[in-house]
Amino acid sequence: MTETTEMLSAPLTFNWTLSYRCNFACDHCYSRDETCPELPTSDILKIVDVLVEQQVPFVNFGGGEPLIRKDLLEVAAYASGRGLNVSMNTNGWLLDDEAAQQLKDAGFKSVGISIDSFEADKHDAFRNMPGSFDRAVSGLDALQKVGLKSTMSSVISRINYQSYHELLDLARAHGVGQVYLHNFKCSGRGFKNREELDLSPNEWQAFYLEALAVKNRTTDLKISFDDPVISSLPDYQEKTMVKGSSCGKLSLHLRPNGDITPCGFIPVVVGNILHDDFATIWYDSPVLKAMRSKSATGKCSGCSAFDDCQGGCTARAFATTGDFNQPDPHCWK
Fold first, then answer.
1. For the CA atoms of 41, 42, 43, 48, what is the dihedral angle to 10 degrees?
2. C-alpha 74, offset from chain centre
3. What is the band of 2 on the pLDDT scale with cuts at 50, 70, 90?
4. Confidence (pTM)
């Protein structure tokens, strides 16, 4: 475990999946084929109390599609009222003007919408939902109307890695202040469709080299990455709180039944937030300890970048090999 992580008494963020239900069937989705019992509202509010007690500052609702849960607004209002910083990610289909105002009233700090291509037909095909591009863009406009901060998430894949500039322009045109260019995780349907959608290691290197240069000269839009493998590039100069993947160190994931996993892309349960002692999970879980103390194996052994990247994305290594310590398959070194 790194020195920074030892100082934390709880994760900074819980990524919370209230439901795996979704009105889309995206080609890359980690959770679309998952099933899990959902907790009643009363238990969800108890979980909020636990997070407050543990002094977790941020909660981000994902899914599945969060807006499918009828009690989302009630849960968010309760959480924000208790001092949590609440955000969410949505596909935008259910996000009209009225919903945007309700989200703002419930205390959401920001709402992210997923858009994976600036071309409507490509986005709709990727999401397997005709009309989804127009609804997502309308959702961004609805957030702008009510003054609720919006972000845009784009999973980089073969459909968009050469046209992300247009995605940035789309964000600018609709009042978005931050764009997340997410790495392809290879989990769930992403694993099944990996050969069709994922890039080769050399293509990932070329993408990041260019995208980092764009990020470094862009001042009107914040561009964010979540891929530890890029720390081996000379142009990557960000100061991060932890080395390697942040999952299990700065963040954890909650399943719809209250089970805790290191992240949404690693389906390994380390405990249940309603039934187990959280401090014991956080400090003593063998799984979390293994993720915080990865060993260099394979081509990572002797690599000068390992101290910074810690083998790259742990979720991707686990999805493709079943071993946290194996090298990230995206690594080009």
1. 90
2. 23
3. very low
4. 0.92
